[in-house]
Amino acid sequence: MADHKTNKDQRYDRQLRLWGDHGQEALENAHVCLVNAAASGTEILKNLVLPGIGAFTIVDGHRVSGEDVGNNFFLSSDSVGKNRAQATTELLQELNTDVSGNFVEENPDRLLDNDPEFFHRFSLVIAVQLEESTCLRLGSVLWNAAVPFLVCRTYGLVGYMRLVVREHTVVESHPDNALEDLRLDQPFPELTNHITSYDLDNMEKKDHSHTPWVIIVAKYLQKWCREHDFQLPRNYKEKEAFRQLLREGIRKNENGTPEEEENFDEAIKNVNTALNPSKVCVSVEDLFNAEQCENITSQSPAFWVMVRAVRDFVQAEGRGSLPVRGTIPDMIADSDKFISLQNVYRERALQDAAAVSRHVESHLQAVGKVCIWGTLHMWNAAFLRVVHCRALVEEYGVDTVHKDEITSCMDNPDSEMVLYLMLRSVDCFYQQHSRYPGVYNYQVEDDIVRLKLCVHSLLQEYGLTVNVKDDYVHEFCRYGAAEPHTVAAFMGGAAAQEAIKLITHQFVPFNNTFIYNAMAQTSATFQL
Amino acid sequence: MFLAVGPLRKELADSLSSCRVLVVGAGGIGCELLKNLVLTGFKNIEVIDLDTIDVSNLNRQFLFQKNHVGKSKAQVAKESVLRFCPSANITAYHDSVMNPDYNVEFFRNFQLVMNALDNRAARNHVNRMCLAADIPLIESGTAGYLGQVTVIKKGMTECYECQPKPTQKTFPGCTIRNTPSEPIHCIVWAKYLFNQLFGEEDADQEVSPDTADPEAAWNPEETAARASASDQDGDIKRVSTKDWARSTGYDPVKLFNKLFKDDIMYLLTMDKLWKKRKAPVPLDWAEVHQLGRSQDDMCGAGLKDQQVLSVGGYSQLFQRSVETLRAQLKEKGDSAELVWDKDDPPAMDFVTAAANLRMHIFSMNMKSRFDVKSMAGNIIPAIATTNAVIAGLIVLEALKILNSDFQQCRTIFLNKQPNPRKKLLVPCALDRPNPNCYVCASKPEVTVKLCVHKTIVQTLQDKVWKLRRGAQIHHRLGLFASNNGKFLSDFGIRNGSRLQADDFLQDYTLLVNVLHCEELPRDVEFEVVGDAPEKAPPPSVPEEEKSITNGNKDSAQPSTSTKAEDDDILIVDSDEEPSSSTTDVSMETGSLKRKLQDAETGETASKRKRLDQQPAAEDDDDDDDIIALD
Fold this sequence. Notes:
- By secondary structure, chain A is an alpha/beta fold.
- Chain A is about 50% helix and about 10% strand.
- In chain A, strand 4 (about 125-130), helix 7 (about 130-145) and strand 5 form a beta-alpha-beta unit.
- In chain A, helix 10 (about 215-225) crosses helix 12.
- Chain A starts with a helix and ends with a strand.
- In chain B, helix 2 crosses helix 15 (about 385-400), helix 12 (about 310-330) runs antiparallel to helix 13 and helix 13 packs across helix 14.
- Chains A and B meet through helix 1, helix 2, helix 3, helix 4 and helix 17 of A and helix 2, helix 14 and helix 15 of B.
């Protein structure tokens, strides 16, 4: 058992560095459903099986064709004629024996007819190369069951992804430039006491140059405030003056030249960081104002109970501030000084966390639920996020379509938006002709005319006054609904990455439509 | 059957099946790329990789399975692809692309070269080979969620080396040996220590206190005296950390007390060092073990790697790992050497323990094994998804190149998540070549500032090239071994001298302008002044100059060196005898060409080659590191 664990640690070493053990655990507990084992689909699954997803189930009623073998790595010529779900499951399974692979030889439409609840059991459903009508049906089943749904499509040299999730909560958003949480603008009492315990003027030289910069800045801020009407340095000029104050604090030798004190250099460098006001950021403020935060019921997900508890904390104990994060950056200091400073922050963070859990408990009690509070790994109030996507019905509804987004993007006739409109048009074509345009070479010319009509009727139906260039109509006919492997491989990587974000609740997924133009190597995301 | 070529024009589809491409690297990107190539219709593919398969590759390198661990990546990748696509024609080489066998002629066999590499040395090399052969190159890299693809075409685009890349961080010897101030210094020290004790000894990786530390001395003369003493014989006398360890039978307790007590006490006697720094605190084995034989270190299931142990815990780990490594050494026989590998548990344990003990001694916060591994192995996180995206992009660029559509080619950056402008991908038009690039410009030059009296030939040979041109260890300026210890001034090289360095393998010549300077800062042996040659002042004293190679009449013995010396350096700009250089060039060319044909140069194949490149391998770690995301 222990051996197995080490083995896993080794196997997954390079990814644990990105999402940690708890991310890996979430992955290993996930069960993903793939509808259609076309090339894009197996590429997505490959990228989920390799990092060790718990289980997958492929739903596919197709028989393997020669075309499948040509663009799908997980099929070989002896699979021709077999069920596609079965054939690909066998080969995908080989990639990682820790993963449980299952398949259902069934057309998704039939499953939706007979057993729509079949889809409720999954952590995430991914559909690729799915016809529009089936996609919409599946979308509404999953929407009602609150199962996240990722639609993915490779159409010639165009890639498309759509995330359909009612509410996706992110505990660790891993923001790119997270600010430190040092509270130097409004130090909590324990920090003030700790700062007071330092006497910079009467210190051994060695201690002086090993005092953490946080202490130095805090000390001189106190001095500054006394001299400036209890106002912190606000603008560049004042900050520069404050830096000068720090510079003057550097010890001088017998000759009056300043010593080299790296901790002071660090302090001067970090003035901006230090003066960052400790306030609740906008994205967390939005969470506080959300309706789910306001009305905690017995049905409320843990995430919202937590958000509410944090809000209560901010209004009560926190006096307007979030709970202290409790981590401090590395800095020049000797171990003792660093550790005692770290402990001041850490202990305060533990206290704050305890206060938050008290709020959690009281809310749960109020709605008659027992506290089932698992340990949330390194949760960090400032990094909480939530993503709401629109339902497919809303996107497709004549009254609810995001017309403005489409029209304003189409001011640039080569915006990726035109590719979206073309994809909708080929779906319209499929509805009328039960096939995609250009799949038979001899029909390409006629199909161009037919597809143009589809574009026209789509725009008319939605009342869109935009211009779609003929070039795009030709290009989409030329594609003949092909699924080139290299575009499928790209989409496989991109979609699997989103799937991992959804499963681990780390990093913020896109919202809600992603378009990839393989010819120009451009991409865009739209809210549709 | 190949619907895959549906959206491609017929001529392009045809050219795919007839063209020949080279994939350099069969790791994270390489595996994906091979799959994409065969499924897009490429038929003739050659793949080269010197590496073997490791367990930690399996989370993304999908052509490999557990039973392949230890086998050649290139070979297994080929077999796996053929299993699915038997019609492809794939040639696999389990070898370093830097092996001189893969010369310009070899590169000319291809219509396109695609890099899927993990280290800068090899990237630089392939870049130059492709420039020399005038073959388009697609360069790529990933790191975690980030990735990048670009196209390099001689004379049309920037080459891989047109923009200077941030150099690998290196640390001055005395910081490592005497005054570490950051955990990384202790980790580097522990890796050196591993080699000193169990691996190949390297005089540049000394771990004992450095008595010649200029900062420790009371006056400059004394420093100079000490420095020269240690240069001449000091290090050589002390060299035998290994012999000493051997004589104790690798007794962990004796080792512990020497490294963490005696050596530290010795450092404390260099009291100048500790005037402004916090002095280190020696550790004694007996005391550490009296303090706590508590069991808390040994418990803790699961996330063992991410725990930080106590000093007692690390000293036990030190003991255990020394014992294991001793046994390994014994098993291999007398003159055996171990090779440090971050994925080899006892080797990693040893470095974790030794580095942490030293961190503790120097009052730093200790680190978990997981963190130490990251830093020691320069581990770049790597996942399947990013590699898949990047390999997809590479093939699309490849299609444009085969279509001769260079105008449409792009450099593409992959972001972690859509940027504020909602773009996941950021495509950029390719830049024109940098006219001052000393790799792809027609007459490249570089100016270096050094002291001709203090710099020895070996230094110029190794370090000028290494630092400035990205760890090109194979790039020896082919001076004969017997001259390597001599100072540049011994050859009449002085301020304003112009040296010519040739790399015959890469069909490349660089002019080096020497700018003499007596006073260089501590730990700096030379500086690169910038690319513009005219910055070098005119030579102050006109001087007769000779070629280094045949200037030293008594000892010029062309084949004393066993290394593949495919490069050479000559003085070309002798102020008074310009003609001599011309002759030298041709003579040298002849002799080197001959050497290249010697069989012995070919033997440095496979894994061994990689070890020779240790300095280059500083950033080599995973199979898919990033190019330069700055």
